[in-house]
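Reviewer comment 2.1 asked that we show a complete input and output for one of the modelled complexes. We chose the flavin mononucleotide case, as it is the one discussed in the main text.
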Amino acid sequence: MERKSIVIYKSSTGFTKKYAEMIAEELKCGLADYRTVTARMLAGCEVIIFGSRAHAGRIDGYRKIKELLPESSRHKLILFVTGATPNDAEDMIKEFWRQNLTAEELAGIPHFYMQGGLCYEKMSLPDRWMMKAFAFFMRKKKDKNEYEKKFEQAIARSYDISDQKYIAPLVAYVKESR
Ligand SMILES: Cc1cc2nc3c(=O)[nH]c(=O)nc-3n(C[C@H](O)[C@H](O)[C@H](O)COP(=O)(O)O)c2cc1C
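Response of the prediction step:
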């Protein structure tokens, strides 16, 4: 029998929401905005997929989701993060996960990265300033490595490369483990 699943998203400019909708559609399961989620809602689920954005090197909202999930339910969690880091920047992405998850979480929580894009037009003012400052810093940085050069291009302006194909590893994982 299929396990009851839910996709929860935290999204500011829409990329994570778009991926969350694609995943929920593909898995034929529930979908909820992070702001509406309660511990009670999660208690009835056997698979909890939480998606958020990378924000200044951190997983936005990860702490709240952990607070809603008792230690005994953490094994139900699957994470996905969207960002502007290029999908093929594997070392950067690995480092991102290492910075955000404990060794235990790295081993126990399936985690997936999906490049989405960047939307300066929909960003909050503080986010836009932060991103512009970061883009300026990247432009000025000397001796950029291959991925820093790609990242510099990736954050220079708004773009959207979100694609159904990037959800495939997560969807396959959930379907296999059901
Ligand atoms: C202030 C700020 C910081 C960001 N930091 C990162 C980052 O550290 N790594 C990354 O890959 N993308 C970063 N991004 C890009 C977002 O993660 C990316 O646009 C994401 O897909 C947005 O998701 P959302 O539309 O669901 O909010 C940042 C964006 C902003 C506005």
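The two ends are 8 Å apart (CA to CA). We note this here for comparison with the apo prediction described in Section 3.2.
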